[in-house]
Amino acid sequence: MDYKSITIGYGSVTKVSIGKRMPLVLIGGPCAIESRDHAFIMAERIGEICHCLNMPWIYKSCYDKDCRSSPESFHGIGIDRGISILADIRKEFNIPVVSDFSDPAWGGITGEVCDMVQVPAYLCRQTSILQAAAATGRPILLKKGQFMSPWNMKNSVRKIEAAGGKQILLTDRGTFFGYNMLVNDFRNFPIMAETGYPVCYDATHSIQMPTSMGSISGGQREYIPYLVRAATACGINALFMEIHDDPPNALCDSNTVLDIKYLEHILRQAKEIHEKRIELLEKYGEDNVHIEN
Amino acid sequence: MSTLKIKNILVKEVMLKIEDFPVLFEKVLFKDTLETMNRFRLGIACIVNSQRQLIGIITDGDIRRKLLKVQKPFSALFVDDALIHSIRNPITIQPITTLIEAIELMGKNQIWDLPVVDDLGTLVGLLHLHPAIQVVLGVK
Question: Do residue B69 and residue A155 have CB atoms under 8 angstroms apart?
Answer without folding.
Answer: no
